[in-house]
Write a structure and sequence with these properties.
Elements: H1 2-15, E1 24-30, E2 33-38, E3 43-48, H2 50-55, E4 63-68, E5 75-80, E6 86-89, E7 99-103, E8 107-113, H3 121-134, E9 137-143, H4 154-163, E10 168-170
Parallel strand pairs: 3-5, 8-9, 9-10
Antiparallel strand pairs: 1-2, 1-4, 2-3, 4-5, 6-7
Length: 179
């Protein structure tokens, strides 16, 4: 039916770009437009072609093919490379598939404080399992270092993650340490 027809359309869309490298990466997405970064470091707000918007959609991290628009300053996203991985967030209890919030993620920086708010190792564990499942390199970023003296029990709670080889970066926006 309809799903098979859309799958065929998606395959045809990708076939147009076979053998060519994508020229951009989505940095931020706004409905039918996406800020796209190109190999030379330049960024441009690009419009999604109606086919890409309907058949593929884009999110932060997607690699895309673009073509010139009406002027040299305009680009239109014509296709999206199949994703290596995706991070999804459920929008509620009834959402069984979730909304894709990022794609092609290499490193997951899990941010947490030791003290304010208190460290929640259960949340850390869930993020680390997710990163492992998706093949993403995890790292823990501890914030508010200035509020966590070396005697804080949170430091002991973080040691098992260090022993697993998870990189840990301690930061303080107040003092600038670790930034």
């Amino acid at each position: 039916g309809r799903e098979q027809q859309e799958e065929t359309q998606r395959a045809r869309l990708l076939a147009r770009f076979e053998g060519t490298e994508p020229d951009g990466r989505i940095i931020c997405q706004f409905g039918s437009h996406a800020e796209t970064q190109f190999a030379d470091g330049s960024r441009l707000l690009c419009m999604l072609s109606p086919k890409v918007h309907k058949l593929q959609g884009v999110c932060v991290g997607d690699l895309v093919w673009t073509q010139r628009g009406a002027t040299d300053a305009e680009r239109i996203i014509q296709g999206r490379v199949p994703r290596r991985n995706e991070l999804r967030r459920r929008r509620g209890e009834d959402d069984h598939t979730g909304h894709v919030i990022a794609a092609n993620v290499d490193v997951m920086a899990i941010t947490t404080a030791l003290k304010e708010p208190p460290l929640r190792t259960g949340a850390l564990d869930r993020y680390l399992v997710l990163a492992s499942f998706l093949g993403i390199e995890p790292m823990i970023v501890l914030t508010k270092l200035d509020q966590s003296p070396s005697t804080d029990p949170g430091w002991q709670a973080i040691e098992p993650y260090r022993s697993l080889g998870v990189p840990i970066v301690a930061t303080s926006a107040t003092s600038g340490e670790g930034l």
